[in-house]
Amino acid sequence: MGPTTNNPLKLQIKRxxxxxxxxxxxISLFLLRAFYLQVIRYNFYHKxxxxxxxxxxxxxxxxxxxxAHMGDGTVPIVLNEKLFTIYADPSLIKKPDExxxxxxxxxxxxxxxxxxxITKEGSRYAVLSRKVSKETKEALLKRxxxxxxxxxxxxxxxxxxxxxxxxxxxxxxxxxxxxxxxxALNNTLAGTPGQLKAVTDINGVPLAxxxxxxxxxxxPGKDITLxxxxxxxxxxxxxxxxGVQNAKAPSGSALIMDPYTGAVKAMANYPxxxxxxxxxxxxxxxxxxxxxxxxxxxxxxxxxxTTAAALDSGAIKTNSSYYDPSKYVIDDFTVKxxxxxxxxxxxxxxxxxxxxxxxxxxxxxxxxxxxxxNQQGREKWHDYMVNxxxxxxxxxxxxSIESEGIVPSPEDNGAGINLTYANxxxxxxxxxxxxxxxxxLSAVLNGGTYYKPTLVDSYxxxxxxxxxxxxxxxxxxxxxxxxxxxxxxxxxxxxxxxYFKQNFDQKTYAVGGKTGTAQIAKATGxxxxxxDYNGTYMGFVGGDKPQYVIVVFVNRPKIAGYAGSQAAQPxxxxxxxxxxxxxxxxxxxx
Amino acid sequence: xxxxSSLAVGRKSAGLSRNQNTASFRGREKALGPIxxxxxxxxLACLLGMLYxxxxxxxxxxxxxxxxxxxxxSQLKEEHDDLEVxxxxxxxxxxxxxxxxxxxxxxxxPEATLQD
Lengths: 590, 116
Known about the structure:
The structure holds two protein chains of two kinds. Chain A is α+β, with helices and mostly antiparallel strands. Chain A folds into two domains: 59-92 and 99-222, Penicillin-binding protein 2a (Domain 2) (Alpha-Beta Complex); 228-275 and 285-456 and 481-582, Beta-lactamase (3-Layer(aba) Sandwich), CATH 3.40.710. The radius of gyration of chain A is 37 Å and the shape is elongated. Chain A starts with 6 loop residues before the first helix and ends in an 8-residue tail after the last helix. The model of chain A has no long low-confidence stretch (mean pLDDT 92). Chain B is rod-shaped. Chain B has helices at residues 3-13, 34-90, 93-97, 100-103. Chain B is an all-alpha fold. The longest helix of chain B has 57 residues, at 34-90. The mean pLDDT of chain B is 80. Helix content of chain B is 66%, strand content 0%. The termini of chain B are far apart. Classes of the chains: A alpha+beta, B mainly alpha. Chains A and B meet through helix 1, strand 3 and helix 9 of A and helix 2 and helix 3 of B.
């Protein structure tokens, strides 16, 4: 018998082949379609997916905190606070009366005011309240009113209200520092924003496995600790306000600084403002810091520096005396003294400061010129003013706006240069700011080292590393150490001879100073105002060596008497007593 | 030739002696055909795909965990910042000045100083 016929087998194989071909065709169709979608149309679908899934946004950096000293420690005086803006979409509001009532209960104000906002036709966004706390926002949103929402915003917060407001400045709605330290050190405080670019899920959560994710963490801004002492600042502001009001003046400035480091311990102006409510301030001039930004003709406080320059240049000695004619006619104008200084007579260097003799300061300038007002004397005094006391240029203190002040050139301009320079010897015909005067006096009293005035004590980065801001020596030997030592008793003599409502125990503490009653140049030019003056005072408090330098400016006081002694001097006196009573002034040992 | 004699010839030619079991069942070698190859490849590809999906899903799951931890960290930081603000307000100069403790204090001028 032969092998069985294989027709059924052949049929089976044929059917298998057909199915096989069919399978190949179907799979090929799928592959072709997949190729079309994923290769030919790749760009289109990739773009469509990314537009929905790819999130790219800047991650804001946290702004640095500003701290100040309080005794031996530090306290934050400017911080960041997250608050909320409550808004409404009027088109979604269902029961306006009920909603308005609930809003008034939660946010304060009247229901009618809210009703007006939430029923406004055509509006899709109405701000109901800003700077709302988290608790209030959560209580309100719990009611689940349709159309009521909240968005978070970061604000700067000032626990000490108006304290040092003009020194600090504020941050505007764009997150940028404006005025004061906030503007001057904006880049340091602002940090660097981060970036997130990632494919996310429907909830916006980045998918860790997706390629090309970019995550740059934000770099928080540095915290800054100021040289300001909160207790000293508060007392200075209180004393300044009382003094300016008592002097019936519209404004005033004062500062206290360390003459051996340039650190500003307190700096204030009156009137001031609350930086948390800067948007409500009508007079934008309040944002300025006049202690740094407004220069004026400083008046007779300059005589302390004129005397220092004359002593240091060897033109005079501390025991020098001279015949004071009580007036000099210079370039057809008369330089004279106030009536109370008496008539002509023999005067000495101590009298020039104590009696505030304009003629005495002019005499000192003459001595710098070898006995008369001339180019030599003018150039020598100009050198002291510009190259040693550094007038006519900014100090570089960390503030947004600083005035340089003006120092006239010593060159003969054919327009009465000798008269001009005689005026500069007693603080007229030149301008300076309180901080420039404080820095210059500090340099004289500490023996000749000019330190850059500073408001910054240290910087702290987000990882906790603190970098101390070292005192910066701008110039050395601006006067000799001996000149510095000689100036102290001369200025102490002035305080001893002037009236203070509470005297100083000068056996225990060294308190020295100089008054200034400065004429005010007419805004239209052509001389000085008749009846308005600025009152100025600069001095020091210490023991064996000066520990604090104080400068006070009072603008246009209306109190009777000389502006320097009646308006500025009492403020200096109160500040000096405050420092002795509360801030560990080390008494004399010898 | 009979059946038994043909077996004998075969045995002889194979060098086998008597009483040896010359009938052995050796399976016919079967090679995989194209369909089987395709199916196996598809299955392998699917397995690889599954493996990739599990790994990606796991990584994304970690991403969610990281996100959750970051949210927790943010929340704690916010609470810390709120407490810092509250603390600063409690220490504010105005508040201290108005406190009962401060009001019951009096100014005392320094009488003497101890020197080292």
